[in-house]
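Journal club prep, notes for RB
We'll compare a predicted complex against what the paper describes. Inputs for the nicotinamide-adenine-dinucleotide case:
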Amino acid sequence: MRLLVCGGAGFIGSGFVRLRVRDHGDEVTVLDKLTYAGRKENLRDVIDKIRFVHGAIEDASAVAEAVTGCEAIVNFAAETHVDRSISGPEAFIMTNMQGTHVLLEAAREHGLRYVQVSTDEVYGSIEEGSFTEQSPLAPSSPYSATKTGADLLVSSYFHTYQLPALICRGSNNYGPYQYPEKLIPLMILNALAGDTLPVYGDGRNVRNWLFVEDFGRGIGHVLEHGVPGEVYNCGGPDECENIDVVRRILSLTGRDESLIEYVTDRPGHDRRYSLSASKLEGLGWRAQVRFDEGLERTVRWYRDNAWWWEPIRSGDYRDYYERHYGRALKA
Ligand SMILES: NC(=O)c1ccc[n+]([C@@H]2O[C@H](COP(=O)([O-])OP(=O)(O)OC[C@H]3O[C@@H](n4cnc5c(N)ncnc54)[C@H](O)[C@@H]3O)[C@@H](O)[C@H]2O)c1
């Protein structure tokens, strides 16, 4: 298949590109703005097998250039960090909503199949049980609200213009190449460096963990087998409290719990996310990686790939970390 993968230089997008090039022989064009979270290094092993266009999804001329010759668009491009959406929502509105609109227009103009990569956060928090595709949308942060707005726009393009558009909503991803502001890589890198591990609130927030390769396979499955107009939830096989994730990381890195430091909670922090994947499983997808195995692989990857994270930990990220947590990272 000839694919336009938007946001393909980010964490999940680059994993998807690797999977499609390696296992499916797809011809891939990546369109990416290369924000702080997007790096060509994430595509190092496939960069000579793809076409790379440096540009923003909200820029119609960049999209027109990138989309030429493609049969489908898969959109990963987004501002993705909840904390950053609280301190500066504007970029989230521009990329997540305006950018999605520009891509939908391009898909409509060229008659392309369109997959929107979305998140369980559009459903908000759930005390018990799991969200299904019928659950009401109740986003609670500027990040999840802009992802919800984009999803509604995608659905409207199916209903109004019969665009063959689909939505795939993933639960919390983890794995190699994830930017270290997110919980798991943050804790792994701090533990490896002997830094304190800042845990929000009481650490009892529950997340439904999905290994990044499983999400990539799920999105590919929706692209190939999904019914236009439908939403598919791609939930991970295991749930875990944040504090338990942190304790497992300490044990995998040979550190003790004295490194844990509880910090002021994020405003409006959702307590629990949980996503039922039964609809996507009915289509033939299954998560292959359980949390124990995936976390061990992830810790090993960060330990073995300092070339990837050292420039991040010594660059702008240091300032972000200091501003956000009010403490400096160890050198
Ligand atoms: N990380 C998760 O746990 C998770 C879970 C479910 C769904 N998602 C969704 O998956 C997608 C990818 O998430 P991720 O964790 O890989 O994010 P990421 O922050 O690692 O990567 C985002 C990518 O989008 C690019 N980008 C940002 N703004 C852009 C713009 N205006 N134009 C073009 N490119 C732009 C960045 O440069 C980067 O390469 C997002 O849509 C996110 O909402 C993420």
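Talking point for the session: The two ends are 45 Å apart (CA to CA).
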